[in-house]
Amino acid sequence: MLFFVIVLQDLKIREIYDGFIFLAEAKRHLPYLKTHRHVELELNLVVSGTITYVVYGRRFTFPRGTLLWMFPSQEHQLVDRSKDGAYYVAVFKPYLIDRACLGEGYAGLKRKSPAERGVMHKMLEPAAFDVIRQTMDAMMAGSLDADVLNREGGFGFASNFLYDHGDPDALNAGLHYLLIQAWKHSRAGHHVGGSVDLHPSVQKALELLGRLDASGGPFAARCGMSEAYLSRLFHQQVGVPLSRYRNAVRLARFMELAKSSRAKTILECVYEAGFGSYAQFYKIFTQNYHQGPREFLGRSRASRRDNFGRPRPHGICGSAAG
User: Fold this and answer.
1) Hey, is 291 helix, strand or coil?
2) Ranges of H-type helices in the chain
3) Which of 115, 140, 141, 312 is least crowded, fewest Cβ atoms below 10 Å from its Cβ?
4) What Å distances lie between residue 264 and 84, 211, 259, CA to CA?
5) Nearest to residue 168, comparing CAs of 283, 18, 35?
6) 242-260 vs 200-210: helix crossing angle, rounded to 10
7) What is the pLDDT of residues 71-125, one digit of tens each?
């Protein structure tokens, strides 16, 4: 039996907001690699490229035009995006759903888990895709800078980062409208191709990597395979080379250390995260963030002080506890 560390993620949504929305872009945004869930209902719309999730031990890859839902009790893990991958992420607080969804036709939105084991999704018809995307595009007016949202939003490199929007009333009205329209369009369209059931050894590898327990040879042995065979099978089933995924986990660990261990130097965080050298770390960091770590950390700390050129709000209300 495999044991996965499930994180109840704090999405850091202030009380004045009924949820949030942002456009996640592979070129700007490092995926959250831990299996997690949150009390908010989540909606994704893939606007370019592909995104890949692992849910319930199965891999799902969704192309442009796919609308998908993640329910509050549904553990999910984003494991990859294509280089041109971009997808809207919208989340809705429970009280918005209770207030907005009164008819029987919307009862499904109040579920804690999907009706069937897997990911509830539909490939939208072109006209429906345009309607939902245009709605989401309009809701971004008054939002934070795209770089800030991709660096911080929902993942919170800065420990006191809070989502913000220039027009809370307009955002909340848009979330209400989007919730209803997206659910309506979810009833049309068609399903994307089948999922891939992950081999137990691949699931074990994801578990160990998620716990940052990813040493070399013993790591493969603990998964019950040779290093070469595990690497091939992992790449085949997850769609990501094992070495690249492992480095992404190390990079995520570095970000956590840099956030929480201010007394440590960058080099200390690099080695504690599992990188073999600073040169290896620097290459991977710049490939993902398109800037050096010192520049990135400086900009991230600046974003803690200011979102719209005004003092940061304090307190997190209505959010999940991590």
Assistant:
1) coil
2) 94-100, 126-139, 146-152, 168-186, 200-210, 217-222, 227-238, 242-260, 266-272, 278-289, 293-305
3) 115
4) 35, 21, 10
5) 18
6) 20
7) 999 988 888 888 899 999 999 999 999 999 999 999 999 999 888 888 999 999 9
Residue 215 DSSP symbol: -
Beta bridge partners of 50: 63
pLDDT at residue 14 tops 80: yes
The owner of tokens 């994180």 is 7
- Which pair of structure tokens corresponds to residue 120? 């509830």
Q: Is 283 helix (H, G, I), strand (E, B) or coil?
A: helix
* Domain limits, CATH 2.60.120.280, in the chain: 7-186
Using alpha carbons only, how large is the chain's radius of gyration in Å?
Answer: 20
Q: Is residue 177 classed exposed, middle or buried when 0-12, 13-18 and 19+ CB atoms within 10 A define those classes?
A: middle
Distance in angstroms (rounded) separating the CA atoms of residues 123 and 205: 31
Q: Locate 64 and state its tokens.
A: 């442009």
Q: Can you read off the two tokens belonging to residue 317?
A: 């209300």
**What is the C-alpha to C-alpha distance for residues 137 and 211, in angstroms, rounded to an integer?**
36
Query: Is the distance from CB of 22 to CB of 141 less than 8 angstroms?
Result: no
Residues of the chain with CATH 1.10.10.60: 199-305
Helix, strand and coil in the chain, % to nearest 5: 40, 20, 40
Q: Could you tell me if 139 and 163 are in contact, meaning their C-beta atoms sit under 8 angstroms apart?
A: no
pLDDT digits (tens, 9 = 90+) for 225-283: 998 999 999 999 998 899 888 888 888 788 878 877 666 888 999 988 889 899 999 99
Strand 77-81 to 41-48 pairing: unpaired
Phi, then psi, of 305 in degrees rounded to 5: -85, -25
Coil, strand or helix: which one is 219?
helix
- CATH code of 199-305, in short, is 1.10.10.60
The CATH code belonging to domain 7-186 is: 2.60.120.280
